[in-house]
Design a protein that fits this description.
The structure holds two protein chains of two kinds. By secondary structure, chain A is α+β, with helices and mostly antiparallel strands. Chain A is built from 20 helices and 22 strands. In chain A, about 30% of the residues lie in helices and about 15% in strands. The longest helix of chain A is centred in the first third of the chain and has 29 residues. The two termini of chain A are about 55 Å apart. The mean pLDDT of chain B is about 90. Chain B is mainly α. Classes of the chains: A alpha+beta, B mainly alpha. The interface between A and B is large, with 67 and 65 residues.
Amino acid sequence: MAVQKVSIWRKTPQLVLSALLIATVAVPIGCRPRDGAGNTDVKVLDSFRADVYRSLDPPRQFDVASARIISNIYDPLLEYHYLKRPYELTPNLLESMPELGADKLTYTFNLRKGIKFHDDPCFPGGKGREMTADDVLYTLKRFADVNVNPQSYPALLQNRIKGLDDFREKTRQQKDLDYDQENIEGLEKIDDYSFKIVMTEPDPLLLMSFATSPLSIVPKEAVEKYGRKLEHHGVGTGPYTLAKNPRKGVMVLKKNPNYHGTYPTEGDPEDQGQGLLAQSGKKLPFVDEIRIPLIEEAQPRMLKFLNGELDAIGIDRDNFPKMAEKVGDKFKLKGKFADQFNISSVDALSSFYITINFRDKVFGQNKALRQALAYAIDTPAYIDKMENGRGHALNTIVPLPIAGSERSVSVKWYPPNLQQAKAKLKEAGYPDGKGLPPIVILYGSQDNITRQNHEFLRAQLAKSGFQLKGEFLSFSDYLGRKEGGSFQLASGGWGADYPDAENFYQLFYGPNKAPGPNDGSYQNSEYDQLYQQMRRMPAGEDRNQIIEKMALLLKEDVPVVFLKAPISVGMRQKWLLNFKSNLMLGSSFKFLDIDTDAKAKGLKK
Amino acid sequence: MVGYIIRRLLYIIPTIMGVAVLVFVLFTVAGEDPVRIALGQHATPQAIADLEALWGLDQPLWKQFLDFLGQIVTFDYGESYFTGEVLSEAFASGALVSLSLTLPPFVLGLVLNIAIAMMIAYYRDTWIDRFATATAVISMSFSYLVYIIAMQYFLAYEFEWFPINGYAQGLDAIPYLALPWLIIMLVSIGPDVRIYRTIFLNEMQTNYVRTARAKGVSEPSVLFIHILKNAMIPILTFTIVAVPFLILGSFLMERFFSIPGLGDLMITAINNGDFPVLKGMTMYITMTYALFNLITDLLIAAVDPRVKLN
């Protein structure tokens, strides 16, 4: 037996080792240069996408992942200035900003001459032709066609342009309408380079819609040639063409050598010192090629960035304590990260809060109870502990970078105050919370972060006598409950559709009550009158005074309790130039530049 | 045998019908509302109605179910709600990618794990057996995610032996797949070796083995000729039923390594409530599973003379 054991002992390891050998062949096969390794002749920007885009056909999408790609291939008529804050509209495909007529209803748009679509087989001879007013009117009609765009029309153009809603109704009845045969009262071509748009009522905010990606200009030839395949193709006037578009691999954009845009010549006061105006007036884009792999998980994204294979990245909550810290109001990178990378932080254009349902029997008629809730939540502590300090405690609903925020009105929200919370609770009829049933808050997510945040709120409210219970729902169930008014409190948030306070104050306008955006069905006739007045006013001091009155009414009535306005913190490689966060642009790629020598030298190890 | 195969194929029809009903009820009646997910907050009733009409969700449920049955018969599940992709094409390309991820380590792992299991079965009740069994149990105690995160960090980032993630077409994909292959093989060692070891030990205690040894057959011959052949029956069963899941891929691996296979397609669809993808994938899995069950039975009949198909 012993002899036989030796024999098999000899053979079995051979088998094992053979298999291991085959397996470890993988190691040398796997060795290869890193993505992003430097070729100094071609300027390559290495970005990434965390989500699959839904559609690259502008009117068929309304999501961030799609808009980010579309903004590089297509152009809207207007865009937000890359450098100036607060965000400011500038002409993109236009000679100048649209002129408002004496009737306050008619805008005249003058297109820049000589702007060409990308070369593409959909055009005769494959050469891109010049963009004209016909393309804009075609785009607007197609945008309003319900069979093409069931999503973004209500948010961007509904009830705003004369005759366009009727046209949309007609497309609902009759598919495949010939747009050329349809005259719309509010759309009028003057000549090949100019056209008029007539509004249903004076609307200073309308122009912001023309800076959004769903309203990018699409040529008719591309729609006719590609049909639904245009959702994965791209024929625009934008700074880049779509060179490779695998569903999940590395998307590649190539520079459009005929692009019409130039780098801005003006910016904020500090931009000059930061080198952001060094390339003023130069032809865009600077980078020859952009590589955009799909990387859905945070770990590989961060490792690739640290390895020099990505040029910029956001710092997530888990990595933040290791890599960065908040010193005063500033964010700084720690240790070796500070040596290797630059940090950037930007105030996000969103607010997060707890909505109180005014149809709820406990809260709806009890102002003191709502005020007690506002005093009971220590928002700065919430931001510090749960968000690593990456947020602002808001005084009004409007995020700081947006016109009409607390920077232009003087309203202070409830400071955290346990004694005041208890006093208000007593005034509400529930001394120390006695007699107050447990209150229930809805969440539209079931992930760990949501549950951790809930635990923090529950512990805080317990100090003053509130018992908080969480209901963690799927997103569609959450929307159903909120819009059906079947909740007491709901975790909520709002991201700016356009950078104006109106977009946030409409959340409390009476006629917008649930299922509209006024989730809590807050109703205050004085507020509604002020809102109607403010909505039609141009930005300025008079408007700010009205906004201040509205903010004070909201403070008094407490239809929501503010939690935070987030701050996004990110890192970027030192070879990435001209970087300034602009959250209103779908993508800033065309303004960015790469120091190719530094990039070639800067790769890890 | 032909009659048996036809009979078994016919049995598959009610199975598929049952799964179809279940899938339809789960996704269409009880599941999340994809229209609400797509439109987000504060969608107007008209916008909801428009999108429902575009996706055919305004039709009566019986009509939607009939359409679904039609899709099962024609293998045409239409287009993804969210990406507009033609699903038959997405499934075909995704399945190939998933197989390129899962099949090589599956085959290599099979050889490796059987070899290890034979060795430790041979050394049963010695320190080699105990050490190997303990190692297998310990390796099974770590989550799949731990292997991925740790090996991606150390082998790809720190040691730079592999790309961190990515994918390419054709043979260019091999460098990107090497690390996932290694992880899949490593993760399979613990559970597979334990199962195979048990199978070998059972066989070693049978009468025919004792007889062979009594007749003076050498131990390698007993192991490789007698035991291995007989142990192949349960191993075959265990192996072939795993094949449908190879086509499905490994969703964690595909997400962490950005491999565009079916596993990742499925997870993205779950996140987005993309029901055409979910319905199509579930039905494909059901059909493949039923088919491979049949193949398993046929193969067992081929290798085990005691099994008669009739």
